[in-house]
Amino acid sequence: MTDIQAVGRQLAEAIKGFSADYIEARLEESQKSYITYRGRELESVGQSTAVGGNIRALVKGGWGFVSFNRLSDLPGRIELAVKQATLVGREESKLAPVKPIVDIVSPEIDKNPLAIPLAEKKQLLDEYNDIIWRTPKLQTSVIGYGDSHKKVIFLNSSGSYIQQERADITLRLSAVAAEDGEVQQANLSLGSRGDFKSIQGLQQPVEEMARHAVELLSAPQVKGREYTVVLDPVLAGVFVHEAFGHLSESDFVYENDRLREIMVLGKKFGRPELNIVDSAALPGLRGSYKYDDEGVPAIKTYLIKEGKLVGRLHSRETAAKMNEAPTGNARAINYHFPPIVRMTNTYIEPSSASFDEIIADIKEGVYAKNWFGGTTSMEMFTFSAGEAYMIRNGKVAEALRPVVLTGNVFTTLNNIDAIGNDLEMNQGGGCGKAGQMPLPVSNGSPHIRIRQCLVGGR
Amino acid sequence: MENILAQAKKVAEEAEVFMVSAEETPVQFEANRLKHIQTKQSTHLALRIIKEGRLGYATTTETGNAHSLVDNAMETAKFGMRAKFELPSPTTYPQIDIFDPAVESTSIEKMGKLGQELIALITEHTPDIICEAMVAKEIISLRIINSRGGQASYKKSIFSLGIIGSLIRGTDMLFVGEIQSSGRPLTQPGEVAKVVLQQLELARNQASAPTKQLPVIFTPRGAANALIPSLMMAFNGKTVLEGASPIGNKLGKLVFDPKLWLWDDPTIAYRPHSRPCDDEGIPSQRTPLIEQGKVASFLYDLQTAALAGTRSTGNGSRRGGLPTPSPTTLIIAPGKTTFDEMVSDIKEGLVIEQLMGAEQGNILGGDFSGNVLLGYKVESGKIVGRVKNTMVSGNVYQILKEVTAIGSQAEWVGGVVNTPPIYCPRLSVASK
C-alpha cells in the first residue's frame, strides 16, 4: 500500500507555502472485510483496501474542502481548497485555540480483526446461522459481519501532526419468521473496538432472537396511545442519543439565535436524578478516541447534570462562536467528508432503582427492549424497539409486535421519573448525520421509566 | 483495467473488472449564508472472479495495485457463494441521454448565486426562517469489462438543488424542505421554493389530531417516504427468493387496488438513476411491478435471477459490495382525482407530507409507524393547519389494497421517485 506517512510529511511541508487563516489535512488508509448471509447460504464475502485524503482550508470564516484518493498533485489540491475558501469567506475566521499536538498514538488498545483468517470468521457465523435455522417456522435469516482497521494522519497549519489507528467490528443478525402471509422479524446488533471475542459465545442470545421472531407471529399489536413506558438499557441508550444527544450538537445551535435561546445553559430539561454524559475519553468503546478529527483531545462532557443543561458538543468553530471550550467532538466518517459535530459514547448515568422497583406500581404499561432504529428532528424524535411487552399490575406480561415510540424533547426528558442502577453500554449502533453514516458510536443507560410516552399502534 | 482482467484470467475461470470515478462539487449554505465549497474526487475499482465455481470479490481505491486486488479476490473465493450465472457477452445498449456537459461547465459562482436566490425566495416570504441550502454537481464515469468480452461504459451528470428551513417559535420547531435532482443543470430556484412556500403556508396555523382512525392523503413526498420502502423490499428478487416477501408467491395476482400501477424505469432521459446498463453490464429496461393492482414482476440481478430460474431485469446495483437487486427510478401512474378534490372529500382527516421513523418498523411485513414531522389536519374539506405530537400507524398492504383515489398530478421526489398523492380511507392516528 501507499506509504501515507511519507505523503503526510510532504503535505506538512507543502501547506506552509499557502496563505489561509487555517489549513488542515487528513490522510487515511484502511482495510475492510465482510461476510454476509441471506438464508442458509453465505451470500457474499469480500475484502477492500482504500487510501485517500483531504485538505480543508479556512479563509475569513469560509471553508473549502477537497477530498481525493489519487495522491498526486497535492499542491494543486491545497490551492483549490484555499481558492474555494476564499470564494466563500466574508467575515472573520473563528476557531477555539488548541495547542499544537505531535503524537503517534500507540495502536495497542485495538486488536486488528483483519489478522483473523476469513475461515475462522465464517465458522462462527455458520454456527449462529445453524442455531437460527433450528427454530421452527423460521422463513429466513440475514447476517452481516464487517470489520475494518484504519490508520489516520491528521496535520494542520498550527503544527499538529497526529497519527491514530482504530479497529471496528459490527455484527447484525436477524431472523425472519413467516406464516399465512404474515412476516415478522427479530434482530441483534453488536459491535466492538476490534475485539473478535466480543462477538463469540452468543449462542444463547441468537437462539432467543430466532424464537422471538416466531413468537411475534402470534403477538398482538399494541393500541396506539400514551403509556407509562419502561426502556431497557439498550433502548434507553438509543433514546438518549436521539432524544437529547443530537440537540446538544452545537452545529445545529451556534448560528441560530432562537435555538441558542432555547438551549441556554442552566435550562431545566429533567428531574434532579437525570445526568447525561458524552465521553470519547472512556477507553475501548466504539465511540472512543484520544483526539478528534480536528486534533482536539477528547474529554468527558456533562450535557445534563441534575436535570439541567450544563454543556454541549463542539467543534473548534462552534466552540469559538459560542465562547465555550472545545470538547473534541468533530468527527468525519472517512476522508471523503469534512469533520462535523458528532456524539461519541453517550449515556445516562445510573441511579438507585432496581428493575422490580421500576415496574412495581405500573398497572398497565409497555416494556420496550432492544434497538431497532431511531431518528430525530431536534424537537421531536422517534425510536423503535425490537421487542416489546405489556406490563400488567407490576409484572412483564404478553409479547407485543415491535413498537415505535415518539416524544418531544422539551417534555419527555422531564417525564423520566425513575432511573435504574444497571448502566450498560450498547456497542451495536451506528449514527447518521449529513450523509455520514454509520459512524461508530456507543450509547448506554440503566433501565428508565417514562410517564405519558406516545406509542404508535393499531 | 485490462491488466487486472488479464491477471485475474490467469488464476480464475471468469473475471469482471468494474471501475467508477466520480467528481462531486457541493456548494453549501448554512444559516442563510454561503459556508462551504467542496470538491470530492474518488475512484473505486472492483474485481469479481469465479474460481472453481465460487465467487470472489475485492475492491480498492489504488488503481495501480492489481496484484493485491487479485490476491484479495482469490482469498474470498475459497468461501464465496456458488456462481449460478454467466457474465454478459458483448451486447448492445439502449441510447439514453444522461450526460449534459452544461452540468460540468456550471461555475461555482453560478451555483453560489442559485443557492442565494433560493434562500432569498424563502426568506422574503418568512424573514425569520433559517435555511441550509445545497447546490451540487456531480460527474460519474463507469466502465465494466469481463472475461467473456462484455464491456460497457457511460458518463453521467447529476445536478441537485435543495433546501431545509427551520422556523423556531418558543420551543415549537417547524422544518420544511425540498430537494430536486436532474441530469441537467437546475436553473429555476423558484421550482424548489414553490414546494417549500406551500409547506410554510399550510403549516401557518396549528391544529390538533384526535386519537382514532382517520382518512389520510399522502402527498408525493409522504408516499415516497412512508409507502415506498416496504414495497421496495417486497419487490426485491432476493427477498422473494428467500420466501420473505409478503407478495413473493402472488405473481399475477390482485394484491393492490386495481387503480395502482408501479414500475421501475432506468431509461428516462436525465434522471439521476438512469443508465444504459446496470452495474453488471445488463442492458437497462423498464420493469413493470404493479399493473392494475396485480403483481407484475420482481427486480433481479444476475445471481438472484439465476437462482430463481429467471432473467436479470438489469437491476444489479453495487453499493460498495457485490451487485444486488435494487430499484432505479420508480414511477406510480397518476390517477383521476386532483389533490383539491381529495381534500374537499374529507370531513376529518390528515395530509401527510413527511413521516419520521417510518422506516423503523417491520418494513418487511409492510408495517410502518411514524411521527408526523410535517402534516396537516383537514376539517370539513379544508386544510386548517399543521398537526404535531401525532403518530400514524398502518400496513402498506392493507392501505394499498383499497385506496380511495390516486392523484392526477405526479411529482418527482428527490429526482428518483415519481408519484401522485395517494388517498387512503383510514389509518390509525394516535395523538397527545
Overview of the structural elements:
The complex is a heterodimer of chains A (458) and B (432). Chain A has 458 residues and is α+β, with helices and mostly antiparallel strands. In chain A, 20% of the residues lie in helices and 41% in strands. Chain A has nine helices and 24 strands. In chain A, β12 (330-331) and β13 form a beta hairpin. In chain A, α3 (118-133) packs parallel to α4. The longest helix of chain A is centred in the N-terminal third of the chain and has 16 residues, at 118-133. Chain A is globular. Chain A starts with a helix and ends with a strand. The mean pLDDT of chain A is 93. In chain B, the strands form four sheets. In chain B, strands 3-2-1-4-5-6 form a six-stranded antiparallel β-sheet. Chain B is globular. In chain B, β19 and β20 (417-419) form a beta hairpin. The model of chain B has no long low-confidence stretch (mean pLDDT 95). Chain B is α+β, with helices and mostly antiparallel strands. In chain B, 22% of the residues lie in helices and 38% in strands. Chains A and B meet through β1, β2, β3, α2 and α3 of A and β2, β3, α2, α4 and β5 of B.
Q: Short description, anyone?
A:
With 458 residues, chain A is an alpha+beta fold. Chain A has helices at 4-14, 74-88, 118-133, 203-217, 233-245, 257-262, 316-321, 355-360, 409-412, and strands at residues 22-38, 41-59, 62-68, 102-104, 138-156, 161-179, 182-192, 225-231, 276-279, 300-305, 308-309, 330-331, 340-341, 345-348, 364-376, 380-392, 395-400, 404-408, 416-419, 424-426, 430-433, 436-440, 442-445, 448-455. Helices cover 20% and strands 41% of the residues of chain A.
